[in-house]
Amino acid sequence: MKPFLLIATRPEDETADAEYEQLLRFGQLEEHELHRIRLESAPLPSLDLDDYSGVIVGGSPFTGSIPTEHKSDTQRRVEKEISDLLDIIVERDFPFLGACYGVGTLLSHQGAVIDSTYSEAVGAVTINLTTAGRNDPLLHGLPDSFPAFVGHKEACRVLPDHAILLASSDTCPVQMFRIKENLYGTQFHPELDAPGIAQRIRIYKNAGYFKPEEADSLIAETSKAPVGDVHRVVSNFTRNYAVS
Fold this sequence. Notes:
The protein is an alpha/beta fold. It has one domain: 3-Layer(aba) Sandwich (Rossmann fold). The chain has seven helices and eleven strands. The strands form two sheets. It has a nine-stranded mixed beta sheet, with helices on both faces. It has a two-stranded antiparallel ribbon with strand order 5-8. Strand 3, helix 2 (73-92) and strand 4 form a beta-alpha-beta unit. Helix 1 runs antiparallel to helix 5 and helix 5 runs antiparallel to helix 6. The longest helix has 20 residues, at 73-92. The N and C termini lie close together (4 Å).
């Protein structure tokens, strides 16, 4: 099988390695089936998409909607390199799954409005499938409503007309979408389970997502959330798009 490619941008080794492990586990992949590029550490190398089954972009501490002058040199480089790669991915309709930061990168590339209007507190929310979502292969086997972990400083406020809304929530109208046939993004985290979000709460407790003194209560609260269904998004993606 051709491997999938994970484009990661988390600077902390602990969270970067955990994200990779979670995608391996819930994508039912072996290590040789998921290549990782940590784009925050070095420029994107030359890639041939024909070497891969699909591309996954994970989460990031970067906030894409802030003014350019407030972005670091690394963030500006990462955004440019991902945008250039998306030029090819979108043109080819090459299998793509963006979670969290992957939403902002793909939707920004496609003309969406991304801002802080629908920023979400850290925790579990109920995701509701649209009619299109109930019939989409990436959501096969999921119930019409299911809990998933969120926690973001920005989200999509205006979805492009050519994008198909697959899922929404009371906290954020665009929780999942599809562009063309094979380009997907989720605002929620399909790769996170309770231990995974507990780790991120501990690491990012001073990053402005919540008050630092709330960390312990958030960990206790999220430990009770039954988020097992959401991981099927990852396994459906890897199963549907794996090619020899």
